[in-house]
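Hey, quick one: can you model this chain's 3D structure?
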Amino acid sequence: MFGDLMGMMGKLKETQQKVEATKKRLDTVFLEEASSDGLLKITLTANRKIKTIEIADALLEDKEQLEDYLILALNKAIEKATNVHEAEVAAVAKEGMPNIPGLDMFK
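Sure thing. Here's the predicted structure for all 107 residues.
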């Protein structure tokens, strides 16, 4: 019984390390989002850190329009990055979870 418990604890610790490694790797996964007309482009990591924002000169003339573009593009970019982040971390966590009866939250 204690051997099983120790094995599960070791497996959980290993999974935790894999999750942390995955999170670090996601800092190197870049995602791009652009407005439909290409006047605004955003690049961010899968960990939701903004790396670049490119704004066409035409948008600089209308503050309100620029603000609208930023809100729309940032929200879409953050959603995309969140989906990638959650899928990657969940895959690693699910792979490393020991089979504990009643704990099927990752299935």
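One thing worth noting: The two ends are 25 Å apart (CA to CA).
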